[in-house]
Amino acid sequence: MSLYESLKDEIYKIPIVDTHEHLMSEEQRNSQPIDVFYFFAHYASSDLVSAGMSPQTLEKIRNTSIPLEERWCDFSPYWARIQNTAYAKTLQIAVRDLFGIDGINERTYIQITEKLRGSQKKGWYRYVLREKGNIVLSLQYVGTMDVDKELFLPVAYYDHFITARSKWDINSLERNYGVSIHSLDDFLKALDIAFERDVKAGAVGIKSGLAYSRILRYDKVSKVEAERLFNRIFSHLGEGLSWEEAKPLQDFIMHEVIRRAISYNLPITIHTGLQEGNANIISNANPVHLVNLFLEYKEAKFDIFHGGYPYTSELATLAKNFRNVYIDMCWLHIISPYVSRRVLHEWLETVPQNKIMGFGGDYIFVEGAYAHSRIARDDIAKVLSEKVEEGYFSEEEALNIAYRLLRDNPKELFNLKI
After folding, report:
1. Domain ranges across the chain
2. Residue 326, phi then psi, degrees to nearest 5
3. For 126-413, which CATH superfamily applies?
4. With CB atoms 3.0 to 4.6 Å apart as the test, which of 226, 244, 279, 342 could cross-link to 252 if both were Cys?
5. Whole-prediction pTM
């Protein structure tokens, strides 16, 4: 047996702490009509559009009221174009391992649909995550604290506070948190209530995904200026402040969110790099924009998502230079396994080993999370075996690092009692 194979065998025995999932609840999955196109809820669907599929055709193939055979005919030419991508390879792994089916093609799509429908039963998530994937715990980012605590722990969002810029947004916060909001102080009181409620419900961290809609630079803004902008919201009957007008207010509230995260000892996870979907402004998501936050809030712990891809070396520099910055490889292994291996080589030579989170599935459907975990384990095994062969690590060191990446580091960062 090769060093890679023996190390991989040991790495597959490690119970993973998965740092990032968006999985629909098992109840939701089991109550909706699903077919083979359930696998194209995201990621691979972006590749389909990139390959030329129109948004209208994408919407059609997801429409379960249209005959499956008709939708397959529309889908198959584009599927042929994207089967080289890691997103597509991940789906092939899922159907092979979980259903015993060799590939997604014209001979198998009906059989896959039947298998998926047969899996709509209680216990499927436990089977896929625990029994097949050896994923002991996943952090769920689904906008609610109501998750299956046997498999998941929740992470809270406060982006809806940061992006509030109209009376409709304020009214929504009033309804959600049971307070009247007439001033910036009232608004911050609602934010306090949200934190208290979420921590009591078991939140282990917070997340911001605003790189999808704005630049990650959050400037220091005075309360006086923020209050002036906040008060302007009440002078607009319609849309409210524009995104450009609202940026200073958003910046101020982001700083307030971070201060509260520090007070509760909650890690702050931030989306950086590639945005899921099609057509966005990638430069907005460069983690370098966050430097002023790292400098100011030394007590905070910033878990920077997706390896910053394509800004992977920039993120290595940040994690190396700042004691409060961590690298998270969630999503990265299915963006590109090759890049994941290349940058892990780099990070293991530049960044302290306790600062790298090795896996987060980042899927809506559970089968994708499982398949992604296999790719991640294989990537880590390949990198560490190469490091041993180079003489950079001993085998014992390599296995200890694997445990750190897949279990110990996220356990420590998120203060998990497992």
Report:
1. 35-119, 126-413
2. -120, 150
3. Metal-dependent hydrolases (3.20.20.140)
4. 226
5. 0.96
